[in-house]
Design goal:
mainly alpha; 4 helices; globular
């Protein structure tokens, strides 16, 4: 995606998948979601907005040098729910 295109649900789902596969850091997924959430030129459907709300915050930790607030199983459940909602 170049900076001028609206990301679609596939791209949001891909971020979750890449985090779970270890191909994208949680911090990168969080930054990407933040850019999308704060871009006033982008318009989101309800499912995409719901998923972005989860993706933006995926890198939160319980504290400095602590585990992530949401573990891998929770992220996997979000991805499964996203896929169900997209049907």
């Amino acid at each position: 995606m170049n900076g001028d295109e609206q990301p679609g649900p596939d791209e949001i789902e891909q971020c979750f998948t890449e985090v779970l596969d270890g191909r994208m850091s949680r911090e990168e997924a969080d930054r990407r979601a933040w850019r999308w959430v704060t871009d006033d030129d982008l318009v989101w459907d309800d499912v995409s907005w719901w998923a972005l709300g989860l993706l933006h915050g995926i890198g939160l930790r319980n504290g400095p040098d602590e585990d992530f607030l949401h573990d891998g199983e929770q992220v996997r459940q979000w991805l499964e729910e996203l896929r169900r909602r997209r049907m």
